[in-house]
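Researcher: Re-running this chain for the archive, since the previous output was lost when a drive failed. Same request as before.
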Amino acid sequence: MLDKSDTNISQTLATFNQHNIDVALLVPTQTGMEKSIMDATATLRSFFKENQFHDYETQEKGPDAKVVKQIFYVRPNTLEPALVLSDK
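Model: Regenerated structure tokens:
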């Protein structure tokens, strides 16, 4: 799916690297885009835990255990705030 990106991934990663910012990529499938739901890969889960953003291992199950987090989409000249839900 990265080959379908409208963003130059190599250039984007280099920019984050220049500023010593750790980054992980979430690559949605077509189904994920259609349903607006995506599962975090093991790599992404590990990245979140290591960076103290979220720990799926300690999150309870069920609709009452959903976690809302603020994120930012990084655009060429702006940061676009958004909220994401995490459930197990």
